[in-house]
Description:
The structure is a single chain. The chain is an alpha+beta fold. The chain has one domain: DD-peptidase/beta-lactamase superfamily (Beta-lactamase, 3-Layer(aba) Sandwich), CATH 3.40.710.10. The protein is built from 14 helices and 17 strands. It has helices spanning 8-30, 42-54, 101-113, 144-148, 159-164, 176-183, 202-216, 220-229, 243-246, 261-267, 290-293, 299-310, 323-331, 399-408; strands at 60-67, 70-81, 86-87, 93-95, 166-167, 253-255, 272-276, 279-282, 286-287, 296-298, 314-315, 318-319, 346-348, 353-357, 360-369, 372-379, 384-390. The strands form 5 sheets. It has an 8-stranded antiparallel β-sheet with strand order 3-2-1-17-16-15-14-13, sandwiched between helices. A 3-stranded antiparallel β-sheet has the order 6-8-7, with no helix packed on it. The longest helix has 23 residues, at 8-30. The radius of gyration is 22 Å and the shape is globular. The N and C termini lie far apart (70 Å). Residues 1-6 and 11-30 have low confidence and may be disordered.
Amino acid sequence: MKVLRLTKRRKVILVVFVLTAIIVAYVGNSKLPQPPESVQMVTELDSYLEGLVNSGSPPGLSIVIVKHDSIVYSKGFGWADAPRNIKATPETVYHWWSITKIPTAMAILQLQEQGKLQLEDPVSKYLPFFEVNYPSDNSNIITILHLLNHSSGIPDASGLKLAKWIHHDTDPALDQTALIEELFPDYATLEFEPGENTAYTNIGYMVLGAIIEKVSGQNYRDYIRKNILEPLEMTQTDFVYTNNMQTVEAAGSHPSFSFMAPLLRIMMGSFIRESSNNSLWLERVYTNQEPPSALIGSTLDASRFMRAYLNKGILDGNRILSEASIELMTNDSHVANANDEGSFFFRRGIGWHVFKEKDELKLEHTGGGPGFFTIMQIYPSQDLGLVMFCNDLSLQQYGWKILQLGASLHWDE
C-alpha cells in the first residue's frame, strides 16, 4: 500500500487551510444573535427568534409550548426550504434524530406492562447474538434497564461512523435486528461495569429496537406507529415522508462557510441538493439505525406527545402508558456519572436526560444529525413542555437557553 507523505510545504498549506476554516466558522458563528439573559414578554421572544433566522443559521425553526394540556405558543420562523420558497410553520416536519429514543423507551415500558418482558431481564434472554466482553468475572449481567438509561457500558459508534449510517430516499429500509446483529461484535467490549456509570450510546438503543421486534413480533416501525403515533393521532410523524407530510417538509441544511462544509461535501456529496442563500441544502436523508434516531415529524405532533406525557400517559382518552411507567421515567432509575459528586445535577434516566433546576426536575433530550437540530424539554412540576425543531445544527450549543427563555414566561396569566 502506498503511503501518502506530506512535504513541509504541503503540511503548511494544510495547516493554513484548517486554521482558515476554523476562523471562518468562528466569524460565522459570532454573527449569530446570542440568546438574551431573559425575556419579559412573548414579543421579546418573537423578536429574538426573528433575528436569529434572519441571520441565516438556522434558516428556519418551529417551536411549540404546552401548559396545562393546552398549546400556549406555536410559531414558525424563517425558511423550511428557502430555495423552494417554503416558510417554516408549526406544521413543518423535521427529522427528530435522537429524540426518537423517548418513544423507543416508551415502547419497552409498554411491553413490560403487557407482561412480555421485565426491565430487570438480561438482554441475552431475548437476543441470542448479544454476547459481550465484561470487565471482570464478577460483572453484573446487562439488563434491559441498563440499555434504557445508558448504564450498560456498551460503547457508542463514533460521530464519523454514525454520519455514514445513512441512505437515500430511494434506498430500501434496513432490517433493524439484522443490522444490529451484524454490527454488534464491534461494540461488544464494555467500557465500564454495567450499572456503575453512564455513557450515551446509540448502539444500546439499536439493541432495544431488536428487543421490541423480538418480543412484539412486529418490525420496529410498525410497532411505534400502531402503539404510539396512531393512538396519539400524530398524523404528521413517521419514519418516511408520507403524502400529507411532503407539502410541509423542511429541507436539511448546513452553512456553506463553516469548518464542516468541506467535510460534508466529501462525505455526503450525493446528499447535497444545491447551494443557495449561504447554505448547502440537502436531499432527503434517512438513517440506517431507526430505534435511536429515525422519526420525522412536526412540532405540533410533538406537542401531542408531550401532552400525553404530562397527562400521565393519556391524551384524548387514549392511554399509551400507565401512570406507574410515567413515574418510572420521570423520577426513578436515574443514573449519574461515576465522578458526579452532586455539585451539578445531571443524570440519565429512561429515555430522558434529567437535570435539577431551581429545586425541580427538567427532562430533556436533543437530537442532531445531517441538516437538523431538535430539542424537547418537560418540567413535570409546572405541567410545562417545550419543543423546538431547526433545519441546521447551529443551535446545538445554546438551543437549551432558547427554550429556557420560553419556560421563564408566565403562561398561566
